[in-house]
Every structure is written in structure tokens, then in C-alpha cells.
Amino acid sequence: MSLRDFGVLSDGRSVQEVTLGNGRLTAQFLTFGARINGLSFDEIDDLTPTLDLEAAEGSNPYSGVIVGPVMNRLGGARARLNGQVLTFDANEGSNLLHSGAAGLHRLVWDIADVSETTVTFAVDLRPDTFPGRRRIEVTYRLEDADLVLEIAGTTDAPTLMNVGFHPFWTVSGRGRAGHVLQVHGAQYLPMDGGNIPTGEIADVVGTALDYRIPRAPADDIDHCFVLPEHDGIAPCVTLESDVMRLEILSDAPAVHVFTGMDIGIAVEPEIHPDAPNHAGFPSIRLGSGETFHQTVIHRFSRR
Asked: How far is CA 274 from the centre of its chain?
């Protein structure tokens, strides 16, 4: 494990870098956004982008970060909670993307704990556009060939919480090119012209989004796939190249896949986007005394 000063953001905040290693995996993390900022496996480097702070603040603000308190989109920049409507400043057309100005990706997190193979980042949030004093902790752990991520969040008042991880993977070493994609879900969420779910849950069969059988992905995927009901951890997405394989497992009910940038393929386990505005979607309401929890396992292997 090593810890060093990484740089200073445009507003003067200092950022630290933590490097973990276990002999097979080596990973770098930044306190800015609790971000993964480089990963190698069995001497195969650059499996996820490594950015300087100018890019992390500017052109690629979501690469490798923890996003929330509500990830993905809220239609009309509003959401229902306890019979009331919360309103937000839209940051993508008329919608809210990744919580906008309240986003976790904009924060410099505390290092709550660190060892040779584990780091825990933590942040305390005061009530803002989202109610409640909240604490969110994120632990990255290297276990042999697995990068394990655990997210936990609490609140002292009812709020909305759908925190998730937004990495870009490039197991081919060529950005988003050179991959075979498999999505372990037979359903997806149709969207309107603003990328907001319509509320329908549709079958992928017969559509361009049927990736149940592995194949090369299109460059315009930006969709949430609904995973089969399961208890505990289950496969959600597999990425393969001619040299290695990445299997992603999670306890989340859905996963968002985004192939729209050449830096890699984003795979984001999550609860359904725009959930508060659709009665048929799982709830993202978190009450006082309750804990939000999500686990994601990234399992690497050579082919």
C-alpha cells in the first residue's frame, strides 16, 4: 500500500492517491469521487482509464467514480418522497443526471481505513436537495483475482438513495473496441427521447439489446437491463477480449451498460433509474435507521 498527494483541484482542494496490491491486482484510487484511477491484473495494465485531475474535473467527470446519492437520471429533475415532490436543478436537458451539483463524484472523500489490500472512503452529507444527514462508506478490497466493492449508506431522515459505481472497463486494451459483451438479463427499461424510462419493463428478445448470447457490443448502448430475481450475489455482465475475461457480479436488481465513449465500456449495477416516479420499480426510499447496501465483484481471469 502507498499513499501520496496526487494534486490540487481547480478550487484548491487537495486530492490523495491510494495504491493497493496483492500480487495479482494493483489498483489506484483517488479521494476525489472515491474514484478508481488505474488497474492492472497479472501484469496486464490499463484495464480502466487513468486520468489527471484536469480530465477528472472536465472531460470525464464520471469515469471510475462513486455516483449518487441517486445515480442515473430523474425525469423532469424531480422525484416523489413521502407524498411530496423534491425538485432539483436540471443538468441534462430537463432531467437530473447523477445528482448534479449534489453528486458524490464532485466530493473529496475521507480515507476512513486503509491496509495493503483494502481502502474505505467515507463522506458525511448534510441535508441539501436530498433530505437527511447521511453517511456513505465505500470499501474497495482486492481478493486474489477479485476487485470487491461494498457500498453502505445511512440517514437520519427519510431520503432517496441509489448509490453506485461508474467504472469504464477496457479489458482489450483498446478502449471500448475489441470486446465481447454478455448481459445476464432478459429484460430492459424502454426509454423516451430524454433517456428516461417509460415505466415499461420489456423483453430483450427480438431487439438490438439482446446480449444474452455474447457478441460484440454496439457503440450506442445506454440502457438499463433488469436482472433476474436473485438472493445475494449473481452474474450481471461479462466482458471478454482475446486476452482476458471480466465477470461482474452484484446483488443489485439491474445494471446499466454504456458504450458511448471510446475510453471503455461502463458497467453500473444499480436500482432502476427514475424509480421514485414509477410505482412498478423498486423503491430507493431510505428511512431513518435503515442501511442502503450494494456489493459488486469484478472477477478477472486470463483466457
From this structure: 16
